[in-house]
Amino acid sequence: MAKYIFVTGGVTSSLGKGIIAASLAKLLQARGLRVTIQKFDPYINVDPGTLNPYEHGECYVTEDGAETDLDLGHYERFLNTPTSQANNVTTGRIYQTVITKEREGAYLGKTVQVIPHITDEIKRRILLLGNNGKYDIVITEIGGTVGDIESLPYIESVRQLQWELGSENCLVVHLTLIPYLKAAKELKTKPTQHSVRQLSEAGVHPDVIVCRTEEPMYNDLKKKIALFCNVTVDSVIEASDVPTIYEVPMEMMQERLDQICMQKLRIPVTKEPDLSKWREFLNKLKYPKSKITIGLIGKYVELQDAYKSILESFIHAGAVNECKVVVQNIHSEFLTKENIEEKLANLDGVLVAPGFGNRGIEGKISAVQYVRERGIPFFGICLGMQCAMIEFARDVLGMKDANTTEVNPGTTEPVIDLMEEQKKITAKGGTMRLGAYPCDIKSGTLAYKIYGKNHISERHRHRYEFNNAYLEEFENAGMIASGKNPETGLVEIVELKDHPFFIGSQFHPELKSTVENPHPLFVNFVKAARDYAEKRDASRTGTTDINVNQVTTPKRMAKQE
Ligand code: GLN
pTM of the full predicted structure? Predict the structure, then answer.
């Protein structure tokens, strides 16, 4: 039978429950346990797929096509194992299930209530992951902060499960903040005491308290928290700020978080954690031998969380290459032909980000043209790839009106068009082409060189695709479809002949990059950017005559209207 660890949060949001949960999971996994993590989100949306990134950050997509909270990305990046639909549940989803059952007559004659019907459904979904024999430990992160009205049914479900499963099968880790008051030069424990009291009033007593702090905690402070919050001193864990989230597992290991949880769950601590790969990654991350600057062109760049998986993929790929990747955010909405030189000239590579709608799209298209003509490494993801095709159509193939029908439904050159199966869909939630699909890679292409194989599978989230009616014309002019869906022929990867590195993918490679398995497209993009930077610097200092600024693609005349 699986054992359950619940992670709750107190005092304030954004304390990093997801990272603490992922770090604990990593340590338990490194000690030989089979671990998974799930997240419960207390909002009413059925999933975050319909949420604007400004509201909720990036929407992470699982193999089986669930649109989920970005914390699932951290879980996968840390554990290197895929999550699924069952790993992210919202209040909306819980109510949807209960209401559907009510309409079907499942509760005939009964009044349907929060207790027991909603809490039963919450418990069912918690236990679901532990029932299939695949895991020794299921970690459940409860979104929100203790005391929120929305969190109450979840806390109540945890209370019931503690009673039903027994203390050796179930424990609660509570994450709080110990604020530092500059004027008093003191760390304050009162908010923690209050949040633990609030949790206790709901019937749940934390077994372990993890304290986020910006200043070192002294032992007497741990004692004070232990005394006031009724836990043992070694169950008070200090989580001070570290330079990267990837150091948190090491910090938690030093604080013995994993061992304390195992002892409480009566799991013998026999094996030392095997973190050799993780340490190797951290070492490379900390001591890079070179540095590059990549421009991230997107319309949500003011919000870091909107491109979380892309940023993390650069960290993984940078470490492999022992190269520090500085990501420079460039707002596509404010990128114009006039300022493009100033914004892009000093970059070593450009990534055009995914996105929806027309805001900022012309800036993205201009960026593609700039880097295509100058031989600057380019990587376009989803909408980024679509922009690359529009730019090529307009500038190289002379189709001045080329566009995606997402932006201009009346375009005379719909090089990007709505997928056939999307044409009849009107509902917005969960209806895109989502999750993993196979892709065949053409031998002899850059994509083949990068992946080293002909068959791959990648994750998707889109409604539009490259219009294959134009493929021959594109390929004749040097834009190759190097990856295609084997059944439908949908173009998945494009690349430009005669360019040092120009790749677009309809899928989202960033969703599959993990610490132990950095994504090859990112790894090779970083490598290409580093090579470009070296050659450019050498040509500037006169040690090589390689001309990195090259226009290689012959242009066609604009089509006559
Ligand atoms: N808006 C585009 C589409 O739906 C691209 C989506 C994306 O970048 N994720 O096809």
Answer: 0.94
